Amino acid sequence: MPTLASQTAQVSATFSRTAPQPIQDVITTNLQNHISTFDTSSVLKPGSILPPFTLPNATGQIISSADLLAKGPILVTFYRGHWCPFCSLALRSLQQILPTLHERGVQLVAISPELPDTSLSTSEKNALTFPVLSDVENAYARELGLVWKMDDSLRPIFEKLGHDLVKGNGDDSFEVPVPATVLVGGDGVVRKRFVEADYRVRVEPGVVLEWVDEL
């Protein structure tokens, strides 16, 4: 089975081969600026208590971290939106290890700023069987230090590519979460985290299973 890194690299290669150069230049410049300025020290660290959340899932049902933790450890992953091909690959990779996570008593939830209706599309498109939660206006991601306010120079590119964040997210902040994955013990303590300013880089599912083995 190909690694997640090899799949995301293929997406990047296809983009480099097919996207108009002016679009590539703006996206690359913005990404490089974000990578150089994002402060990972502000992100929730291992050993910290996970701040509580209460968020709606794709069908509007309210899911709380307290209820999840009452059943055991949880794996929380943040993604930018259904429009992000790197996010789709990452979500599918976690779906593939979901049976193993459940066998080991770990529950998985994904969080994005998209409205429940949009989250439902994400679940259906990627055949996800774990909860996809809506963090409207990135309120929870902000609490964890995971918000990127994108530059307005990206707006016309998003429009050109058909990515309507105002409709999908319900606000015009033009903010997205920095993709991150956090393993939390049943006691609410963060055990492991993966956070990377370069949204093309995601944690491998095999690494997540190694984390779980260490619980």
From TrEMBL:
Its EC number is 1.11.1.24. PANTHER family: SLL1159 PROTEIN, THIOREDOXIN-DEPENDENT PEROXIDE REDUCTASE. Keywords: Antioxidant, Disulfide bond, Oxidoreductase, Peroxidase, Redox-active center. Pfam families: AhpC-TSA (PF00578). Residues 44-215 form the Thioredoxin domain. It is an enzyme of class 1 (oxidoreductase). This is thioredoxin-dependent peroxiredoxin. The keyword Oxidoreductase applies. It comes from the Eukaryota. Belongs to the peroxiredoxin family. BCP/PrxQ subfamily. GO terms for biological process: cell redox homeostasis; cellular response to oxidative stress. Coiled coil: none annotated. GO terms for cellular component: cytoplasm. GO terms for molecular function: thioredoxin peroxidase activity. Gene3D superfamilies: Glutaredoxin. It catalyses: a hydroperoxide + [thioredoxin]-dithiol = an alcohol + [thioredoxin]-disulfide + H2O.
